[in-house]
Amino acid sequence: MSSSPKYTWHKIADSIAAIDFSSTGLTEIEVAGKTICLGIHNDTVHACTHKCPHAGGTLAEGYLDAAGNIVCPLHRYKFSMQTGRNISGEGYYLKTFPVELRNEGVFVGIADSSLFDWLK
Ligand code: FES
Fold it and tell me: Which domains, ranges and CATH numbers included, belong to the chain?
């Protein structure tokens, strides 16, 4: 049984500087038909789903705290953009996506999924 997901990598920008982050260091983009939230902290880009797992807050309208955790604008729950861990302790999990900086640009990996993945 395979436990590591396979990713399809999507180029999202020529460089980090080409990504239009707001003053909070967050933005939303469309990748492979999904809306995802990007955040930049210490010159590193992270990606996660755009809706908060608690009650659907739009995470790009929140902000990053000093440690680079994303803070939801609705109820202020905090999540690590690297691991998806709910730092403020409410027990939710934020789906994250890997980001790679390559010579050709910035890429986000979207896991290939299938209804039959559990058979592998
Ligand atoms: S909707 Fe995000 S913390 Fe409640």
Answer: 7-119 (2.102.10.10)
Instruction: Count Cβ atoms below 10 Å from residue 54 Cβ, excluding itself.
Output: 16
Supply the pTM of this predicted model.
0.90
DSSP string, 22-82: -TTSEEEEEETTEEEEEEEETTEEEEEESB-TTT--BGGGSEE-TTS-EE-TTT--EE-TT
In whole angstroms, what is the distance from residue 116 CA to residue 120 CA? Answer: 7
Dist. CA 16–CA 31, nearest whole Å:
16
Protein residue whose Cα sits closest to atom 4 of ligand 1? 75
Number of Cα atoms under 13 Å in the Cβ half of residue 49: 13
Test site for ligand 1: of 54, 59, 79, most ligand atoms within 8 A of the Cβ: 54
Instruction: Report pLDDT digits (tens) over 10-28.
Output: 999 999 999 999 999 999 9
Could you report the per-residue pLDDT of 73-102, keeping only the tens digit for each?
A: 999 999 999 999 999 999 999 999 999 999
